[in-house]
Design brief:
The complex is a heterodimer of chains A (about 80) and B (about 375). Chain A is an alpha+beta fold. A three-stranded antiparallel β-sheet of chain A has the order 5-1-6. In chain A, strands 2-3-4 form a three-stranded antiparallel β-sheet, with helices on one face. In chain A, a hairpin with a 4-residue loop joins strand 3 and strand 4. In chain A, helix 2 packs across helix 3. With about 375 residues, chain B is α+β, with helices and mostly antiparallel strands. Helix content of chain B is about 30%, strand content about 30%. Chain B contains eleven helices and 18 strands. Chain B is globular, with a radius of gyration of 23 Å. The chains are: A alpha+beta (about 80), B alpha+beta (about 375). Chains A and B meet through strand 2, strand 3 and strand 4 of A and helix 7, strand 18 and helix 8 of B.
Chain lengths: ~80, ~375
């Protein structure tokens, strides 16, 4: 299963990403690894792709990376910021 | 407004006054009790009386209402006019009105703050089936070429001793600007939405409108021009196309897409209850999406950045709500108490004083703002 970000207005500043959900008027912020993963999801990517990207970029073991990715995707789904393609 | 200038703009705009006069002559019925909401000098209420209303009640939160009272006396209208100094939803009025007239429009014809005040006024001061002037709005967008304006917003390179100020543009492109100079349309204007003001008390947000505009001139589209017309009476529209001092707005696209004749731009505007406008554009050519631009007023604000820096556990929030509180906090000058500020806020925005005070207290705790008792 691959995911991609919904087309929402965003701003990058100081290593952080600010994303607006216009209907609710809510602004979400991502930083560090979350900002890194958010960038990867601008194009369709699976959870496995994201884990691989984390392993390549950060000094982290695979189980930890997998847990982070799962939590991150769950958060994006909950906030309706991502869609399945 | 507490100063004469804003009122002069209205009074000197003969077209604007003439439009209201025409509308009130069409809408006012004998026996009407007219609420002039945010009455200023009282001119709209006076026109309603001249059009046959039985009574007018003028309410304004600024002392200009005292000038209105004197003007009523000088014009022989004092026996049919009552004036109240106070915040619209909160004041006590002698009776409910059968007609509300107002020039409290706010920016762009869709203004969450103005709608909140008018909604509260409807709930508290209008009779069943009361009518309103204006009764609703019509909104249009036009794709435009505006290189000078766009460059001023986006291009911050060069000049200023070679300093790189490019980041400024990233914020500047996320808001709309009142348009004071001509821009060239590269396609026809299209209606993007209509809104009834009949039940603002029930809330109208979020609003999401989409329209597709057709490009008829090749080149670059730098954004859309936003126009609005307020329906004062059937057939009487007043707004940014009426030359009455109401400006259209320019909403930029970044990047500004190069377009060919026949391209279609699908433009969506979203308005949230917290006073934020967002707009997106999708350029389509032969059924294929060529370019996108996505903007949100919340991204023109620095407050989220500040919170992200200062509060490690910062969580998503409604930025306009936070902006309002922060703006109020910024008014703490060391001499006035929280209660003073709450009173000021309540009077200006139609809040209950207790609510304003509670919000200020919460903000002080959250941002660790201390003070003497």
């Amino acid at each position: 299963m691959k995911y991609v970000l919904r087309d929402l207005p965003y701003q990058e500043f100081g290593g952080k990403v600010f994303v607006v959900e216009p209907r609710e008027g809510v602004l979400h912020m991502f930083e560090d690894t979350a900002a890194f993963l958010w960038h990867r999801l601008r194009r369709p990517a699976s959870a496995r792709d994201l884990v691989a990207a984390l392993l390549e970029e950060y000094e982290v073991d695979e189980p930890t990376a997998a847990r982070d990715v799962e939590a991150f995707l769950a958060e994006l789904r909950e906030k309706n910021l991502v869609r399945v393609v | 407004m507490s100063e004469i200038l804003e009122h002069l703009y209205l009074l000197r705009s003969r077209r604007r006054i003439a439009a209201y006069r025409r509308a009130l002559r069409a809408v006012v019925r004998p026996g009407d009790v007219v609420l002039d909401a945010g009455c200023g000098t009282g001119i709209l209420g006076f026109l309603a009386l001249r059009a046959g209303a039985a009574r007018m009640i003028g309410v304004d939160r600024h002392p200009v209402v005292l000038l209105a009272r004197e003007l009523a006396k000088r014009n022989g209208l004092a026996d049919r006019a009552t004036f109240v100094l106070g915040s619209l939803p909160d004041v006590d009025l002698p009776q409910r009105a059968t007609l509300m007239v107002s020039d409290l429009i706010g920016h762009g014809g869709i203004d969450a703050r103005a709608f909140r005040i008018l909604g509260g006024t409807q709930r508290r001061h209008l009779a069943e089936r009361a009518r309103q002037v204006p009764s609703g709005g019509v909104y249009w967008i036009t794709p435009v070429r505006a290189p000078r304006i766009h460059r001023r917003l986006v291009d911050w390179t060069g000049g200023f001793d070679g300093l790189d100020l490019g980041l400024v543009g990233r914020f500047a492109v996320h808001r709309g600007y009142q348009l004071f100079e001509p821009v060239r349309a590269v396609g026809p204007a299209v209606e993007i939405g209509r809104l009834s003001f009949a039940r603002l008390d029930r809330g109208v947000f979020p609003i999401e409108w989409t329209a597709e505009v057709r490009v008829t001139s090749p080149g670059v589209v730098h954004g859309v021009r936003w126009d609005y017309g307020l329906e004062l009476a059937p057939g009487v529209l007043m707004g940014s196309r009426s030359r009455v001092g109401r400006q259209p707005f320019f909403f930029p696209f970044d990047p500004a897409p190069a377009v060919r004749r026949g391209d279609r731009l699908r433009v969506t505007f979203v308005f949230s209850a917290d006073h934020n406008w967002s707009w997106t554009m999708e350029q389509r050519r032969g059924g294929r999406v060529c370019a996108r631009a996505m903007h949100a007023g919340a991204l023109a604000s620095f407050l989220p950045l500040e919170q992200a820096e200062l509060v490690p556990s910062w969580r998503p929030h409604a930025p306009a709500e936070l902006a309002e509180v922060c703006w109020r906090i910024a008014r703490m000058d060391g001499t006035r108490t929280l209660a003073d500020l709450a009173r000021e806020w309540a009077a200006q925005d139609g809040l209950r004083e207790e609510e304003a005070l509670e919000r200020l207290r919460r903000a002080c705790l959250e941002f660790k703002i201390g003070g003497s008792p």
